[in-house]
Amino acid sequence: MPESKGRAKATYTPPQRKAKAAQVGNPAWFAPVMVVLLVLGLLWIVTFYVTQGSYPVPSIGYWNLAIGITLILGGFGFAMRWR
């Protein structure tokens, strides 16, 4: 019976691993800043209504609502980029 020839191919070498991508998640400060912006905006608006415009900044009147809404929108902006 004829003898089989050995393989000319080298032994198996696993494929090289690709370099890992940069950090996938957010930094540690990201979530606390998001929560602070949301809560601060809510507290700003609630304070304005409860004090009937006397606080937080009485001289700007209803622009206090714009400040509170802007803080909340900033928090939502952070929330949309949270991973």
Write a structural description.
By secondary structure, this protein is mainly α. The protein has a domain at 28-55. Helices cover 47% and strands 0% of the residues. It contains two helices and no strands. The chain has helices at residues 30-50, 63-80. The radius of gyration is 30 Å and the shape is rod-shaped. The termini are far apart.
Number of helices: 2
Structural class: mainly alpha
Instruction: List the helices and strands in order.
Output: HH
Overall geometry comes to rod-shaped
Biggest sheet character: none
Layout of SSEs?
Elements: H1 30-50, H2 63-80
What features would you highlight for this structure?
83 residues; mainly alpha; rod-shaped; Cell division protein CrgA; membrane; cell cycle; transmembrane
Kindly summarize this structure in a few lines.
The protein is mostly helical.
